[in-house]
Specification:
The protein has about 625 residues and is mainly alpha-helical. Helix content is about 65%, strand content about 5%. It has a domain of about 150 residues: Butyryl-CoA Dehydrogenase, subunit A, domain 3 (Up-down Bundle).
């Protein structure tokens, strides 16, 4: 079946800039350069004041006023720089070989790094100065939106380096970890796969080849998986170099920062995700204790597909159908959007109206192309505060779920658009709340609308996939990365060792439910190669289980739920995860029972499928 019959629309970003050569883009680019230069000129004042940082007080009025001006300038520059960066990133997502966009991305990264570097001395002052001085700053309107971030920043005091060292790390990151991350992006966007199908060999990009995993034809799934595996096998040395460099860089930084107090490789991601170590350990312990829930989901899938054990190529397989026509059944983008809209509107009409806004303004990218980068995401433009959704929509039920997921992210951004920008910088742990919630409400509506037993089974099949993804796959990624950092602290690792670690972590999660482990997952998964963050994994399981906890409140709260839900989302940028949970759910995330209750909801979904199709 031709994917073009189902693919989504191309997004429209000309409301921001028509192209890289437009007068609007050039004007903002020039404005950014001028603001960065001006900020660099002002930064010297704070460099000098660092010498007496411990003696500052609320009576240093001139310095408070200068700090407020500096904060205002940097916020203005950040908005312009972020806007330009988002536009360039959108171009590269659709066409990874866009040479002009690649060059501009490198230039913007350099400028934003220079901006961050210039702010270092002020950040150090706000972290190290007495509370009386910081309190005086927070009374100024320029600083008020940063109150929570400054509070979190001050927690990092034991790990701060000198001004020159902090600036050096910031400056070197452009040609250090950022360069390695860019290399991976370039490789993944240009890599071609040879998919061996019956009677023909098709050459296609990674995103399209990976899409074969959703085919109802197992031979095609295997062919797509092997093609992607073969393509990445040619890049093992490159990927190993990237992972060794990124992990090595971070470990060296942590060692330098940890001279006064030991800095564990999990401390930085935990701080960024705004959760306590005890919360993570509690959640992961409960998840591993309940691995049988995810494994039962896979056993049910294998039984339904009439195979002894699933292969990694079967994890995204559609449910079996009674006939070939049903197996090829897909949902057009327009039907999928209407489904999401109605599901959102069931929560509250305003949520449904938001989907209309996204469609009307063409803020969704859903075309299918070999030039597109794989994956899906939601981003936003900092100036207009408007979200964008990126994916390759081909009409599968998996795509419908992805569309709902990313529109959930977009809704999260939408309800925060009137807040000061710094109060909208929510962590990954809480970022997944709205996306998983959106997937859940859409699945709920799909099940209620389903006219046939087959349709109902298809929806429950998706729940099995979620159980596998969040209770097995994400933990496997976490265990892999944890052991990677432990071993990388001693030496570099070879491609074979990365594959062994990955196979081991998959085996720990999946047990005997798979015929083979995805040993090259460390190559193919973008998240391991991102320069800006490590452990881009456990927040997904956190978000999944946390969102289920939020969803459970829907029936309990009735008409009050929507406003409470929006208020919860609006607090995600100005509270820790534990604080949000206490305030809006009345729960303690350090209590295993919260996570157990959410997993019980997943177990009921798995058992619902078992009961639906019959059998033990």
């Amino acid at each position: 079946m031709n994917d073009s019959q189902f693919e989504g629309p191309r997004w429209e970003n000309s409301s921001e800039y028509s192209d890289l050569n437009s007068p609007e883009f050039s004007a903002d680019f020039d404005l950014l350069k001028k603001k960065v230069e001006r900020i660099k000129e002002h930064s010297g004042l704070f460099d000098d004041e660092l010498e007496r940082v411990k003696h500052l007080s609320e009576f240093d009025i001139e310095l408070v006023e200068a700090a407020a001006r500096m904060r205002g300038l940097t916020d203005e520059a950040f908005v312009v720089g972020a806007n330009l960066g988002t536009f360039v990133s959108c171009l590269l997502s659709v066409n990874g070989s866009h040479a002009q966009a690649r060059n501009m991305q490198a230039v913007l990264r350099q400028l934003m790094t220079s901006l961050e570097e210039s702010l270092t001395s002020l950040d150090l002052i706000l972290t190290q100065a007495p509370q009386s001085f910081v309190g005086a700053c927070l009374k100024r309107s320029e600083f008020k939106p940063h109150e929570f971030s400054i509070e979190k920043q001050r927690e990092w005091l034991p790990f701060l380096l000198s001004l020159s060292e902090e600036r050096m790390l910031t400056r070197f990151s452009v040609n250090g970890p950022d360069a390695w991350g860019t290399l991976y992006d370039n490789v993944s966007s240009s890599l071609q796969c040879l998919v061996e199908l019956p009677g023909e060999i098709k050459k296609m990009g990674l995103a399209r080849a990976a899409g074969c995993a959703q085919s109802g034809d197992r031979a095609e799934r295997i062919a797509g998986y092997r093609a992607v595996e073969n393509a990445w096998s040619t890049q093992q040395e490159t990927c190993a170099s990237i992972l060794n460099a990124l992990a090595g860089w971070r470990l060296d930084e942590y060692k330098s920062r940890g001279t006064k107090k030991n800095l564990h490789f999990l401390d930085r991601p935990l701080h960024g995700c705004r959760i306590n170590r005890s919360t993570l350990e509690t959640m992961m312990a409960v998840v591993e204790e309940n691995a049988s829930v995810g494994r039962d989901a896979l056993s049910l899938k294998a039984r339904e597909l009439k195979i002894d054990a699933l292969g990694p190529w079967d994890l995204f397989a559609p449910p079996p159908q009674e006939n070939a026509e049903a197996a090829e059944e897909k949902m057009s983008f327009n039907d999928a959007i209407e489904l999401v809209r109605s599901a959102f509107a069931d929560v509250d009409p305003q949520m449904g109206e938001f989907v209309d806004v996204m469609v009307k303004n063409r803020w969704i990218e859903g075309t299918v192309s070999d030039t597109k980068r794989p994956g899906a995401y939601c981003t936003r433009f900092a100036k207009s505060r408007t979200p964008r959704v990126y994916m390759s929509y081909k009409g599968t039920m998996e795509d419908v779920g992805t569309l709902a997921h990313e529109l959930g992210h977009a809704f999260h951004n939408w309800v925060m658009r009137d807040l000061p920008l710094p109060e909208t910088w929510y962590p990954m742990t809480l970022a997944e709340t709205a996306s998983i919630f959106a997937e859940t409400v859409v699945s709920d509506v799909m099940f209620k609308r389903a006219q046939t037993q087959s349709a109902k089974r298809n929806i429950l099949w998706g729940e099995l996939g979620s159980a596998e993804a969040f209770l097995l796959n994400i933990p496997a990624r976490f265990w892999f990365e944890s052991e990677l950092y432990e071993k990388r602290a001693e030496r570099t690792l070879s491609p074979d060792e990365f594959s062994e670690l990955m196979s081991k972590s998959w085996k720990r999660a999946y047990g005997n439910t798979l015929s083979e482990m995805n040993k090259l997952f460390w190559c193919s998964k973008l998240h391991f190669h991102m320069s800006g963050t490590s452990f881009y994994n456990f927040p997904y399981t956190f978000g999944y289980l946390f969102a289920l906890g939020v969803y459970a409140q829907r029936d309990r709260q009735g008409p009050e739920f929507y406003s409470n839900y929006v208020n919860l989302l609006r607090d995600t940028g100005r509270m820790s995860a534990e604080e949000v949970a206490r305030k809006h759910l009345g729960v303690d995330l350090g209590n295993p029972q919260f996570w157990q209750d959410s997993i019980l909801m997943v177990k009921k979904q798995v058992e619902s499928y078992r009961g639906f199709v019959g059998g033990a």
